[in-house]
């Protein structure tokens, strides 16, 4: 039996309107405007993650590896962090971070060496190849993101960015420990 295509899988998901109507049928206290915003954000996030995953796959890396490269780049030159810092930043267990670093070191995206000042401490550093992969992923992401927002004017983009940032701050204030994966949700 053939596997369903992505289009068939997408068709199985109800439209936002159908989902909201079903929720209202089962939970009359639902505010349909709130549900539309939240559901649209969730679906957009899920679909964007799939799109980014497809892009990173064309570069021979995973979204998980992209996240490590991004964290190292954001840390600034010389693009170095300890594995514990990376794990905390990405919401991973130390063991999961070790496995990720192992793969990435084998692929030449990062190096892992002992800190000369503290032989117990390990330093993960972005390699030239890792930085080139990051740049290639950024180029692909930029094209995707520009296409995504093409129908919005500069003013609409600015307003959307401000509104989403306000929502993000509210969640961050209410859930300060929710930056990564929570152990109680794994």
UniProtKB/TrEMBL annotation:
Gene3D superfamilies: Winged helix-like DNA-binding domain superfamily/Winged helix DNA-binding domain (1.10.10.10). Pfam families: MarR. It comes from the Bacteria. Residues 34-169 form the HTH marR-type domain. This is MarR family transcriptional regulator.
